[in-house]
Specification:
By secondary structure, the protein is mainly beta. The chain is elongated, with a radius of gyration of 18 Å. It has an 8-stranded antiparallel barrel with strand order 1-2-3-4-5-6-7-8. It has a single domain, classed as Porin (Beta Barrel), CATH 2.40.160.20. The longest helix is centred in the N-terminal third of the chain and has 15 residues. A hairpin with a 6-residue loop joins β4 and β5. It contains 2 helices and 8 strands.
Length: about 180
């Protein structure tokens, strides 16, 4: 029920925002960028690991006259195993390549946006005392951010919920990143 309300709310925001002011768009239709920040483990991953970090590189295309753009992200997220006084050390890391749609909400200066997509996630566990292994899985993400256009480049703050589909469940985490697009 909550998920369907969230989807309806996003659709409503999108419809209300259709009249779009082209002056609020980025100056460059094609941009490249980098981002980094915290990665928060959720659900079972949060029970087993501490907060981690994220590093992302991206290429985006956002035409001047429409609010919808695309962005390809290559990301790395790492989480260390929680110190539970058992002497267990190790980490989980996730490398991903995702294709995302970005919907920019009209604004004259600070520009909020919605982002979501799907792609390939490479999950790797490296806990020498217990398990080591890796695998490729399908995953998806959804979130939002705020873009601040500056002279010659844009900065942004973004949070996205990521879910990697697994054989016996799913892995979930939320990177909160700060980035620069040129």
């Amino acid at each position: 029920m909550k998920r369907s309300l969230f989807v309806v709310a996003l659709a409503g925001i999108a419809l209300v925002s259709l009249p779009f002011d082209a002056s609020a768009q980025a100056k460059n239709a094609v941009q490249v960028g980098v981002a980094g920040g915290l990665a928060i483990p959720v659900s079972d991953l949060g029970d087993a690991t501490d907060m981690g970090f994220n590093v992302t590189g991206m290429v985006g295309f956002h035409p001047q006259m429409i609010p919808l753009g695309i962005r390809v992200d290559v990301a790395y997220n790492r989480f260390d195993v929680k110190d539970n006084n058992a002497g267990i050390e190790g980490n989980f890391n996730f490398t991903s390549v995702t294709g995302n749609l970005i919907y920019s909400i009209p604004s004259p200066s600070v520009a909020p946006y919605l982002i979501g997509g799907a792609g390939w996630y490479h999950a790797k566990a490296d806990i020498p005392a217990i398990v080591s292994g890796s695998g490729d899985k399908f995953g998806w993400n959804i979130g939002g951010g705020i873009k601040l256009p500056l002279s010659g480049f844009d900065t942004f703050l973004e949070a996205r919920y990521n879910q990697i589909q697994g054989d016996g469940g799913s892995i979930k985490f939320v990177p909160i990143t700060f980035g620069i697009m040129f």
